[in-house]
Design a protein that fits this description.
Its main location: cytoplasm. It is built from 8 helices and 8 strands, in the order H-H-H-E-H-E-E-H-E-H-E-H-E-E-E-H. The chain has 248 residues and is an alpha/beta fold.
Length: 248
């Protein structure tokens, strides 16, 4: 490698090596030169995705001390770290539970379940572990990519829909739901479901999302409760739609 890749404009270049794909080399160069990756390492966070959660919460105020939080697709644990910090969860009084089928290093103040959220009985185990209805449900779940954009979109949208169904069945009234989706398609049925059950819907592209990424987040705030949901549409925030591009 040439260069030291510090924050003064120097760029790390990865030398070509036999057996290393060009795509892998480009990914490594992007990681080494990403200011969010360097900042995460300096700040003690698990990944650059941590700053997406920080930026979203700074703007939309999801978390309050004492709240209960479920983090779906928690690996490597960056969102869990933010949730623990902002709701003041401790090992003595845990109010954050994360889940992923991938191993996650322990996060102080949280319980992490190494399970597949899609398996039978696992959603119920999450709530049992938390011990009460969640105030906030986060989902950064995404299906492994195939390279076929439409297929990848449909698979991740399915995870978003499953997470939304879980949120509507388990959230405390007034609670919030945040989930990963993709630009160009919050599916109409999902959007209609969320509008019916939440007071406002936001389409969010945080600054920490990489430029050119199709990644997008849908934020549903103010769960009405199963007995209060009506057919009136929720409020949508126009400036988020403009910022994020066309949707559903």
């Amino acid at each position: 490698m040439a260069g030291r890749g510090d924050d003064r404009g120097m760029t790390v270049r990865v030398k070509k090596k036999h057996g290393v794909k060009a795509s892998s080399r480009r990914w490594l160069e992007r990681q080494l030169n990403d200011p969010y990756v360097r900042r995460a390492k300096a700040d003690g966070y698990r990944s650059r995705a941590t700053y997406k959660m920080i930026e979203i919460d700074d703007r939309y105020k999801l978390f309050k001390p004492g709240q209960a939080v479920v983090d779906l697709g928690a690996a490597p644990g960056g969102w869990t770290q933010v949730a623990v910090d902002r709701v003041k969860s401790t090992n003595e009084h845990i109010s954050v539970v994360g889940i992923d089928y991938l191993p996650v290093e322990p996060v102080t103040g949280a319980v992490i379940l190494e399970l597949d959220f899609l398996d039978d009985g696992v959603p119920e185990k999450l709530i049992e572990t938390l011990g009460r209805a969640p105030d906030v449900i986060l989902s950064d779940m995404a299906a492994p990519t195939t390279g076929h954009r439409r297929t990848d979109h449909l698979r991740t949208m399915h995870l978003c829909e499953v997470a939304a169904d879980f949120a509507i069945r388990t959230l405390k009234p007034g609670g919030h739901f945040l989930a990963k989706t993709f630009q160009g398609g919050t599916e109409n049925d999902l959007l209609t479901l969320l509008k019916r059950n939440f007071t406002s819907i936001h389409h969010v592209k945080p600054p920490a999302s990489r430029e050119g990424s199709v990644e997008l987040y849908i934020l549903a705030k103010g769960f009405k409760g199963l007995n209060l949901a009506r057919d009136e549409p929720a409020e949508e925030i126009a400036e988020d739609d403009e910022e994020a591009g066309p949707l559903g």
